[in-house]
Specification:
569 residues, alpha/beta, 14 helices
Length: 569
């Protein structure tokens, strides 16, 4: 990985390294540094004893509350979700914020809940080669209805392998060229063209674009008139295992009503495992692995399989609303301009089976909401107070398509041309103190420089996200602000641990992604080392404080994927 280090910092690092070498005792260079003692467990702050500073104790108390079994996984529309909303509102009010949306703490987000009925009876039947093959829900595939109907089905729908399912004129790529997919079932790969052969000349090379996200695949298939779309799951390409797909799709699914989101939607959409895809293609006389390789080459042509798909699903539909919780600290001089902090409060709720049924979501994203409250507390006690307003939005429905932030961005408290920036916090790594901060979406806006300065004040460096292929920039709420032109900062601790270095940091993050991400095991742990997350929150606060006291607006850099609203200069 290439890391961008300012020349002055590089010279200083080399100078310090030379001093250490000159003063070292003989043989010291070969000796392993002693292991740093692990800090004692943090005792969470008791109610009514909150600090004006950003502290590990306050952060721990807030995560413990938000990730408690009492909140039942914070599902939007459920009891746990309502308890989470009430807790955040009470905290905003106690901190001293003002209601942030048209005189209210709450912004209602219209919501349709779709709950699959009798999933154990669902199977995909594929007629091919004179026989029939069945693919079982959960084991072979996960499927749902995206268009809010009580029933959806396909019957003898012709199956087409469509490569990555991408139509991107800006990259001179169209997997839909010269084929009509109306009424057909399209099978597509996750990630961008070029992922399979790691071709750096295609799209953005290693870095995933929005065309690689599963949400895009379904959107494009619906725009093209397909009856169904099935994405072939690959752990490396998706950056998460099959279990995450199952957990994310097995419970109630949420969407905006069609009147508020008029784009076409699929009646049948879902995922199949790679093994299931191999079996399906083999029965149709095709080699899935060979076709998969061909999808990474310019000139790829869709392949119609000698197979037809049939499937029927029924869903219970409920129309209601979810809630964004919004508080604001009015600016002392330019109250009509706002710096926005966001973090999503929702998680996956409860599963239908298993010994531990609650998806507590401690890291994802009780950590981000706890950070939101910590930073709000710091701003509320700041002297002098910020010149611009600072808005804190705990948004909903992130886990189901970034819907809460999408609703806020299209129905904002402050006009977007008066919105200075969005600083988003999602799944803060709780791995101990690090020497670096990683920016997801590095190189896009002036905010890179703001966070570099904040990190330098802590003796840390800033690095680009070293796993851009995971597409994290497109998987959290800052995306909706960026799409509408507001510069965003989405950052988190890097991997270079103060105690253990980069290998230890990568191992700690991989452990979370493998063993706890979107699983019931993502629970609060009193033995967490919270020193690093406190450092991160202080850096994010420093960025926002500087933005709130300036009179300029950060801009997107030349060549960025986004453009500032014209009136904000």
């Amino acid at each position: 990985m290439h890391r961008i280090i300012p020349p002055a910092l590089l010279a200083l690092a080399l100078s310090l390294a030379a001093c250490r070498h000159e003063n070292a005792a003989p043989g010291a260079a070969d000796a392993a540094p002693p292991a740093a003692p692990r800090p004692a467990p943090v005792t969470p702050t008791a109610d009514n004893h909150w600090s004006a500073e950003i502290t590990a104790e306050d952060f721990a108390a807030r995560v413990r509350k938000l990730a408690s079994d009492e909140l039942e996984g914070r599902s939007p529309g459920g009891l746990g979700g309502r308890l989470a909303v009430d807790y955040i509102k009470d905290q905003f009010e106690r901190i001293g914020l003002k209601p942030g949306y048209k005189g209210s703490w709450f912004q209602n987000v219209p919501m349709v809940t779709t709950t699959l009925q009798q999933p154990e009876q669902i199977a995909l039947s594929v007629a091919e080669g004179g026989g029939e093959e069945r693919f079982v829900y959960g084991k072979d595939l996960i499927v749902g209805n995206l268009d809010n109907r009580e029933s959806a089905s396909i019957a003898d729908s012709p199956i087409v392998f469509l490569g990555y399912g991408v139509d991107a004129p800006e990259y001179q790529w169209n997997d839909y060229a010269d084929i009509d997919v109306k009424g057909k079932t399209v099978v597509v790969l996750v990630n961008d063209p070029g992922w399979g052969n790691q071709d750096p000349s295609l799209f953005k090379g290693k870095a995933m674009t929005y065309f690689g996200r599963w949400t895009y695949k379904f959107e494009e298939a619906a725009r093209k008139g397909a009856a169904a779309c099935l994405i072939v799951h690959d752990t490396a390409a998706a950056s998460y295992p099959w279990e995450v797909v199952v957990n994310s799709w097995s419970g109630p699914q949420f969407s905006l009503p069609a009147r508020d989101d008029p784009d076409p939607r699929l009646g049948v959409a879902g995922w199949i495992t790679t093994d299931a895809a191999r079996r399906l293609f083999a029965k149709a006389g095709q080699d899935f692995d060979a076709l998969k390789k061909s999808a990474d080459l310019r000139g790829f042509k869709p392949v119609a399989l000698d197979a037809k798909a049939s499937l029927a699903i029924k869903s219970a539909i409920q129309v209601s609303s979810a809630t964004n919780v919004i508080g604001v600290l009015p600016g002392s001089e330019r109250a009509g301009e706002a710096v926005v902090y966001t973090a999503h409060w929702d998680h996956l709720g409860k599963s239908f089976s298993g010994a531990d049924r609650i998806f507590n979501g401690a890291v994802d994203n009780a950590s981000g909401v706890a950070g939101l409250l910590e930073i709000a507390e710091a701003f509320a006690h700041q002297q002098p107070p910020p010149k611009r307003s600072v808005l804190f939005a705990a948004v909903t429905l992130e886990e189901f398509g970034l819907l809460g932030s999408r609703w806020y961005a299209t129905h904002p408290s402050f006009p977007l041309d008066k919105t200075v920036a969005d600083i988003n916090m999602d799944a803060l790594p709780i791995i101990g103190p690090t020497k670096d901060i990683a920016v997801i979406g590095w190189g896009q806006s002036d905010l890179d420089d703001y966070v570099k300065d904040a990190a330098a004040a802590e003796g840390r460096t800033v690095v680009p996200d070293e796993t851009p292929e995971t597409g994290f920039f497109f998987r959290s709420d800052q995306l909706n602000f960026a799409r509408l032109g507001v510069p965003v900062l989405y950052a988190r601790a890097g991997f270079d641990l103060v105690d253990g270095g980069e290998d230890a940091g990568r191992k700690a993050w991989a452990d979370y992604m493998t063993n706890r991400y979107h699983k019931p095991s993502d629970e609060y742990d009193p033995n967490w080392d919270l020193r690093g997350v406190v450092d991160d929150l202080k850096a994010f606060y420093a960025v926002g404080r500087r933005l709130a006291d300036e009179d300029t607006f950060p801009q997107w850099k030349p060549g960025a994927d986004f453009r500032r609203p014209a009136a904000a200069k």
